[in-house]
Specification:
Bound molecules: ligand MV4
Largest sheet: 8 strands, antiparallel
CATH superfamily of the largest domain: ATP-grasp fold, B domain
Strand content: 25-35%
Shape: globular
CATH architecture of the largest domain: 2-Layer Sandwich
CATH class of the largest domain: Alpha Beta
CATH topology of the largest domain: D-amino Acid Aminotransferase, Chain A, domain 1
Radius of gyration: 23 Å
Number of strands: 22
Strand order of the largest sheet: 13-12-9-10-11-14-21-19
Number of domains: 3
């Protein structure tokens, strides 16, 4: 039995994992870099260990610092969260060799899913639909392979992922130069210049399926998440269920995801990503970690994914089977970033002077920052995830809009007003969008003009004005005024 878990991460996901530990009466050990000494994850944990300077390679990415912290504190297991070391197969292996439990899949599974050529080949052989193209490593007469696939096509780095090392090739004339450029980029970024070629889908949706497996061969899926609202491979809004697919299709996709997971000998939580276009879906990649957007799945399925990660990691079997898992209602997540959507989404470091979180039925805040904390540009600009649940999509959008209107962070600019505008967008409301949605609809987005009166209210950080903001109904909210004001000023 796991008695103590070291969380090799920071921010909201570290807080989320500590909460699961608390509920399971497992001790939680935080690690932190010098700049994170006052971070919420440090204060929430039972113990905390400083592991070095802000530079991730000296702290959150440093194998030995993390293993030593685990040994020093007597932890039995390490949860990597997402990002950092979460999909590093060598780290998972090192954890195991250090007689600690890695809360995630086996190192070999992480390694094979990290290679696009290998994972695609494996899925193709298992009968999971893949995008037509060169299967496995790109060898032989590339011109003729490309002609067989047909233009436009896409060249991707096998070691890539999340959009790195990718290029669209429109015609034969561009092929050689695109391959050369992708090769160089891949070699420089990943130290591996293996490429794959595939048909380019120009207007796809990104739909992914959550899977969960134990170490005794049981694998289930927790249905899908729609993740098409993103820009430059950074997701902004996710929801479950996907409004784009029928129940029959949903079943097919879920079964394909379980097939993929079985082929990869999967245990623990994972995600099978698909592209969906014109009624067909295709395997894209498999993410061998807990994902940022796991919360929307938890809300509709009523299953705590983090707790199950811990249970299956210590050898417990799943206590439910596929037929027991139902999607109920609709959940939406908005990611609150310290970014300025009017200036190319540039990071907006600063001090959080005031933070007021929305509450109410069906409102969940997964937050990793607190008042008086400095947000530096050392790490990911994700501040919080606002997740809502309601009985249907329309009600969930309304609930999210109200929750956003009552979400206040003063001291730095966030994307909160941008998120509200997405909630009000007709194509979003009609669920008519693809991965091109932000580019198509919000290219020249700007903050509403300043309203001096509302601004004055915000600047009056007296107890009275705070009380008014926090207890305000929609009509009193500083966000509700169309004339608006600029957050963070
Ligand atoms: C594609 C594609 C179109 N056609 N592959 C982007 C991330 C990487 N994991 C794969 N990606 C894509 N692969 C083919 N054959 C379009 C994308 C893509 C995308 C995918 C999911 C979510 C957002 C995206 C935004 C741009 C491009």
């Amino acid at each position: 039995m796991i008695k103590k878990i070291l969380i090799a991460n920071r921010g909201e996901i570290a807080c989320r994992i500590i909460r699961a530990c608390n509920e399971m009466s497992i001790k939680a050990v935080a690690v932190y870099s010098d700049v994170d000494v006052d971070s919420p994850h440090v204060l929430m944990a039972d113990q905390a260990v400083n592991i070095g300077s802000a530079n991730p390679s000296e702290s959150y990415l440093n194998f030995d610092k993390i293993i030593n912290a685990a040994k020093e504190t007597g932890a039995d297991a390490i949860h990597p969260g997402y990002g950092f070391l979460s999909e590093n197969g060598a780290f998972a292996q090192y954890v195991k060799e250090s007689d600690l439990i890695f809360i995630g899949p086996e190192a070999d599974t992480i390694k094979s899913m990290g290679d696009k050529a290998e994972s695609k080949q494996m899925m193709f052989e298992a009968g999971v639909p893949t995008i037509p193209g060169s299967d496995g490593e790109l060898v032989g007469n590339i011109d003729s392979i490309a002609r067989d696939i047909g233009y436009p096509l896409m060249v991707k780095a096998a070691a890539g992922g999340g959009g790195k090392g990718m290029r669209v090739v429109r015609n034969e004339g561009e092929l050689d130069s695109s391959i050369e450029a992708a090769k160089n980029e891949a070699r420089n970024s990943f130290g591996n210049d293996t490429l794959i070629l595939e048909k380019f889908l120009d207007n796809p949706r990104h739909i992914e399926v959550q899977i969960l497996g134990d170490k005794n061969g049981n694998i289930v899926h927790l249905y899908e998440r729609e993740c098409s609202i993103q820009r430059r491979h950074q997701k902004i809004i996710e929801e479950s269920p996907s409004p784009a697919i029928t129940n029959k299709f949903r079943k097919k996709m879920g079964e394909a995801a379980v097939k993929a997971a079985k082929a990869a000998n999967y245990s623990n939580a994972g995600t099978v990503e698909f592209l969906y276009q014109e009624g067909e879906f295709y395997f894209l990649e498999m993410n061998t970690r807990l994902q940022v957007e796991h919360g929307v799945t938890e809300m509709v399925c009523g299953i705590d994914i983090v707790k199950w990660q811990i249970r299956v990691a210590q050898g417990e079997s799943l206590t439910f089977s596929q037929k027991d898992i139902k999607q109920r209602g609709h959940s939406i997540e908005c990611r609150i970033y310290a970014e300025d959507p009017s200036r190319g989404f540039l990071p907006t470091p600063g001090f959080i002077r005031k933070m007021i979180l929305p509450e109410g039925p069906g409102v969940r805040n997964d937050v990793g920052v607190s008042e008086a904390q400095e947000i530096t540009s050392s790490y990911d600009p994700l501040l919080a995830k606002l997740v809502v649940w309601d009985s249907d999509r329309g009600s969930a959008i309304q609930r999210m809009d109200l929750a956003l209107s009552n979400f206040v962070i003063l001291g730095l600019i966030t994307n909160q007003p941008f998120l509200r505008d997405i909630m009000k967008n007709e194509s979003f409301q009609k669920a008519s969008f693809s991965t091109n949605f932000i580019d198509e609809n919000f290219k020249d987005w700007d903050f509403p003009a300043l309203d001096p009166q509302v601004l004055a209210l915000a600047l009056l950080s007296s107890k009275a004005s705070q009380a008014q903001i926090s207890s305000s109904a929609e009509s009193y909210s500083p966000w509700s005024n169309n004339r608006g004001w600029r957050q963070g000023v």
